[in-house]
Design goal:
The relative contact order is 0.15. This protein has an 8-stranded mixed beta barrel, surrounded by 5 helices. A 3-stranded antiparallel beta sheet has the order 1-2-3. A two-stranded antiparallel ribbon has the order 7-8. Helix 1 packs across helix 3 and helix 5 packs across helix 6 (222-235). The chain is globular, with a radius of gyration of 21 Å. It is an alpha/beta fold. The chain has helices spanning 64-78, 86-97, 107-125, 129-141, 182-202, 222-235, 272-285, 300-310, 326-334, 345-348, 351-363, 381-388, 402-417; strands spanning 4-13, 19-27, 32-36, 151-158, 171-175, 245-249, 261-263, 268-270, 288-292, 315-318, 340-343, 367-371, 393-395. The protein folds into 2 domains: 4-126, Enolase-like, domain 1 (2-Layer Sandwich); 151-417, TIM Barrel (Alpha-Beta Barrel). The protein is built from 13 helices and 13 strands. The structure holds 2-phosphoglyceric acid and magnesium ion.
């Protein structure tokens, strides 16, 4: 095993042109590797804190304080430690920070180090990052798991906080459930995406894209987005509901006014019961197999209601609801909220805590969807996390824009090189 000799961070930029943290860790044998952290726009209020400088530079979005925390405080504590011992490294980060939400050091500081330690360890052992993640999973849980390629949800039409259009629902995703392998997953999604572009053009709708690479036109209603996607699947000569299904991320916290779910694009507002009925009518009419953040993160009664009503026939995913935090998630499990969890490293701030949450999901029969953030970089760690832990699903945007495509390209390489790693679901 090799010891950490240097930890260094610099400020880089994400896909929205906003500063973020990059960290490089070097070992005493000269091996080094870097990692970068992503950033959300429609964040859950209980996420770990992303430390921003809030001064007059970079519109207040600089991360130089987080970087200084790495270079001057956290990094020096790790010198001489074995980089492979992820649990120990993450514990040092968590203990030094000393808060529940990483608000002293910043989750962007702790995650950059945590990820860079995993990258350099995999490189040092000359193994894939997914293999290393799988070993960390075994160290944490005492269990082994099978590698698999995750089924993606491609966000091909963007609304909500991720676009400047009038669509309220944040993400309209296609799930190529019937594809036989990852090459076919990419072929179908790319063809559907470009057919959607043609259909939008033919209607004189905008084909400009939102933050996650999906198109972001103004539409007559939220439902029209689904109709357009169905048409683009059919134009690809694929069968909606058989070859390709649909998933939504409502990100409902963003349009909940405290009493009602306000869909400006539809000129409608619904209370929790009515919104549940609205979503139930959508899953009855269209092949929608998954809905994320169907309710506001604090609307516990609404969550209970929708889980009871449609939780048997539809995947209901908690993102802002659970924020990848094991304790918050456990409370939700006890209350029987949702049936799946979205997993984002930076909502909690270390690899160890992320894996503990995934393990908690497994123990309670909740599905895991590994996820990007709307502000991303070329870092592809989430692809390896999905494969290494055998998570059945991933969402990482449209099949468009390098910040999204980098993750899918990584999965294509993994499939190509490892004949025994098969597509899940
Ligand atoms: C979400 C994510 C990623 P953000 O809500 O699921 O798609 O968006 O990173 O803006 O929170
Ligand atoms: Mg979400």
């Amino acid at each position: 095993m090799s010891k950490i000799s240097d930890v260094k961070a610099i400020q880089v930029f994400d896909s929205r042109g906003i500063p973020t943290v990059a960290c490089e860790i070097k070992l005493d044998n000269g091996v080094f590797a870097t990692a970068m952290v992503p950033s959300g726009a429609s964040t859950g209020s209980k996420e770990a804190l992303e430390l921003r400088d809030n001064d007059s530079n970079y519109h207040g979005k600089g991360v130089l304080n987080a970087i200084s925390n790495i270079n001057n405080k956290l990094g020096p504590l790790l010198k001489g430690k074995e980089s492979e011992n992820q649990i120990e490294i993450d514990k040092i980060l968590v203990d030094y920070d000393g808060t529940n939400d990483k608000s002293s050091m910043g989750a962007n500081a702790t995650l950059a180090i945590s990820l860079a330690a995993a990258h350099v360890s995999a490189k040092n052992k000359n193994i894939n990052l997914y293999e290393h993640f799988s070993r960390i999973y075994s160290d944490i849980t005492g269990k082994r798991n099978k590698y698999s390629l995750p089924m993606p949800m491609f966000n091909i039409l963007n609304g909500g906080e991720h676009a400047d259009n009038n669509v309220d629902i944040q993400e309209f995703m296609i799930v190529p459930s019937g594809a036989k392998d990852f090459v076919q997953v990419m072929k179908w999604s790319m063809e559907i995406y470009h057919n959607l572009k043609k259909i939008l053009s033919s209607k004189n709708y905008s084909t400009a894209v939102g933050d996650e690479g999906g198109f972001a036109p103004n539409l007559k209603s939220n439902e029209e987005a689904i109709e357009l996607i169905i048409a683009s699947i059919e134009a690809t000569k694929l069968k909606p509901g058989e070859d390709v299904n649909i998933a939504l991320d409502c990100a409902a916290t963003e349009f909940f006014d405290g009493n009602n779910y306000v869909l400006d694009g539809d000129n409608q507002k619904y209370n929790s019961e009515e919104f549940t009925e609205y979503l139930e009518s959508l899953i009855t009419k269209y092949p929608i197999i998954s809905i994320e953040d169907a309710m506001d993160e604090n609307d516990t009664d609404g969550w209970k209601m929708i889980t009871k009503k449609i939780g048997k026939k539809c995947q209901l995913v908690g993102d802002d609801l659970f924020v990848t935090n094991k304790n918050i998630f456990q409370e939700g499990i006890n209350e029987k909220l949702a049936n799946s969890i979205l997993i984002k490293f930076n909502q909690v701030g270390t690899i160890t805590e992320t894996i503990e949450t995934i393990n908690c999901a497994r123990e309670n029969n909740y599905k895991c969807i590994i996820s990007h953030r709307s502000g991303e970089t070329e870092d592809t760690s989430i692809s390896d996390l999905a494969v290494g832990l055998g998570a059945s699903q991933i969402k990482t945007g449209a099949p468009c824009r390098s910040d999204r495509i980098a993750k899918y390209n990584r999965l294509l390489w993994i499939e190509d090189k490892s004949n025994d790693i098969l597509l899940d679901e």
